[in-house]
Design goal:
single chain; 32% strand; alpha+beta; Jelly Rolls
Length: 257
């Protein structure tokens, strides 16, 4: 079943939103609620108005769609893959997103950690729930790689974006993001607060970024976090992205019966 959204119909004005909604509906086999579609369009409009849209190179809204297949349609960039089809429909919730199992499940973003400049990089997620165990990955390098400098990592107790050191913190649910725009430091945002970390950048490791898993020095780690959004790309204003992503997830939740 192929559905077609026309720009301007029901408030969808942005070509990217029109194409995305049509692709999601084709994957789902049915239409989205109008207010879900509007929320997606508003997100695109807002990011463009804020001047951060072009910095987003890979992005997936892991919520809103009616099916898991629809949720894995990318808003920007290459679609993530579900290796071995380990994620199933029961893992997906339209309002809260996709949940890992802490033992076998992960998504491959198909975006290489070195695809963006060493000193212009961001990564973000929206976590509906955090991993139940400490130091568990929500966004990290693929499982073939051991932990080291030049990594991009978001855990519930750790962050890093092309750095030589790790920085411990206690994450909260909601938007979590990292952005580096220079060689001397980077910014972490969580719980509506920015923190500047004075850590010099190093050459980024060439591995794909994945969700829900990583391979630290003692072998693969997985998490049972629930995520409803991720983005990867060049440096941007995290506060602006936080506002747009949080509004998107809230609007999707309100639009679903």
């Amino acid at each position: 079943m192929t559905l077609r959204w026309v720009p301007g119909w029901n408030g969808l004005t942005e070509p990217e939103a029109v194409s995305y909604v049509a692709a999601v509906e084709a994957a789902d086999g049915q239409e989205l609620e109008f207010d879900v579609a509007r929320a997606i369009n508003d997100f695109v409009v807002g990011c463009k108005n804020d001047g951060i849209w072009d910095a987003i190179k890979a992005c997936c809204i892991l919520a809103g769609a009616r099916t898991l297949s629809g949720a894995l349609v990318p808003l920007v960039g290459t679609a993530p893959t579900n290796p071995g089809n380990v994620f199933v429909e029961a893992d997906y919730n339209r309002e809260a997103g996709l949940v890992g199992n802490g033992s076998t499940k992960y998504l491959n973003s198909n975006r290489n950690n070195n695809a963006d400049p060493q000193n212009s990089k961001h990564a973000s997620i929206y976590a509906s729930s955090l991993p139940s165990s400490a130091l568990r990955p929500m966004l990290a390098l693929d499982r073939l790689n051991t932990e080291g400098s030049g990594a991009t990592l978001i855990y519930n107790t750790l962050t890093r974006v092309h750095d030589a050191q790790s920085s411990a913190y206690s994450a909260s649910t909601g938007f979590i993001g990292l952005s580096r725009s220079n060689s001397a430091n980077y910014t972490r945002r969580n719980n509506s607060l920015n923190t500047t970390l004075a850590e010099s950048s190093v050459s980024p490791i060439s591995r794909n970024i994945i969700l829900f898993a990583d391979n630290l020095q003692n072998g693969p780690l997985y998490s049972n976090a629930r995520l409803s959004f991720y983005s990867i790309g060049e440096s941007l204003d995290l506060a602006l992205l936080d506002t747009r992503v949080s509004a998107l997830i809230t609007a999707i939740g309100a639009a679903i019966p």
